[in-house]
Known about the structure:
By secondary structure, the chain is an all-alpha fold.
Amino acid sequence: MSAASFDPVAAILLIPIGAAALLAALPGYRQTARLNVIASLATFLSALCLFIIDRPQPGPYVLVDDLNIVFIVLNTFVGFTTSIFSASYIAHELETGRLTPVYLRFYHAMYQTMMFGMNLAFVSNNIGLMWVAVEIATLTTVLMVGIYRTHAALEAAWKYFILGSVGIGLALFGTILIYMAARPVVGEGQDGMVWTLLIRHAAAFDPALLNVAFVFLLLGYGTKVGLAPLHAWLPDAHAEGPTPISAVLSGLLLNVALYALLRFKMLLAVNSAAITPGPLMVTMGLVSLVFAAFMLYRRRDIKRLFAYSSIEHMGIIVFAFGMGGPLANFAGLLHMVMHSLTKSAIFYAVGHISQIKGTQRIARIRGLTVTHPALGWGLVTGVVAIAGLPPLGIFMSEFLLVSSTFARQPLLAIVLVAGLLLAFGALTLRLTSLAFGEPRGSTASAEASYVPMFAHLSLVLGAGIYLPAPFVAWFQHVARLLG
């Protein structure tokens, strides 16, 4: 196939859904694990081709622009590295009998279906299709959260399903209201749901309908983002599902709903008579940050601990985009990328730790840097990064955000810094007991690949020390697009 005839957008959609069908039919763990990795790599390479091949013109269903390419490349990269981690993690689950070969085929097929759903949401130019794609990604993760079929796992899956359904229902109503606002201007039919047409004509839409629509969209997609007080599904889903799914939930799926919110925020910004979305996003972001920071002190389960850390960081990101402006938007984009890389690396470490120790209880895990130096110091690096210490990437994004907020809204900056310091204290407290001190629990060797974890941490460290000029220019351009 020539470069001219290769369609990377079709590839990032067809490869995962084709692989899902094949993985559902194939028996044998090794074969399916390898195919899962190969399909994820092919999808990632196809996403990279968007940088070197002319992007397709926006159509009624597909859109590739400077905003969603950030999400697409990040999504496919973390999907690829998680598939590598998943191969060794799931092999252990199979050996210990927690998963059966039948469930394993289901797991790999659902993994690729989930990647398809997320990729479809990012490239959708139709807001109705984007809603459907988010629902596909949600339902597949619901099924994967409950894959162990224990009482706790099934309860977590049902809670995720019920709260997710409420959220997606609110988002659907908001989407319908956007269509109703567009119909008098762009006419009947699918044109009223094509985002490129909506953004072109949004200035003429009924502002009252846009206002109500955004409230429902913020509540609906905010549930998927994990914003407090809509977050209740997230800690259970992280704690009870397979750890690779925890990595994907924190590192990727939360970003899908965030992307949808940003698209609608851009829509309202065009209409001068509509409400400003910023204050609503700033409020929910700060509430999530402060709430999660306090809750971190009460966690006794290592996966729940980092689930609340995800709520904290999504709050920071939503706050950044709510503040708006070139610097805050740049900080929000950088923080989103750094959080996805760092949090997935932390869950890679946590997955291997929980398998070695046979528990997720923090009190039963001690001295990791003594018994498992690579794993222990990898976790230390990840937690230091997620806590926002220099010279790692999250420090840079938080520094830019705090600087921007102090210059514009000093009182908000005080609340922001207080939340960051509270979370830092909780994470440091837990890390000290996990990584150092007298070893506790099993000292068995970890039969796993540390490559995904250290690859992510290397990127986060590199970004904290030096950001390449093309990367900065790209993010500055996207930050301006966001308003």
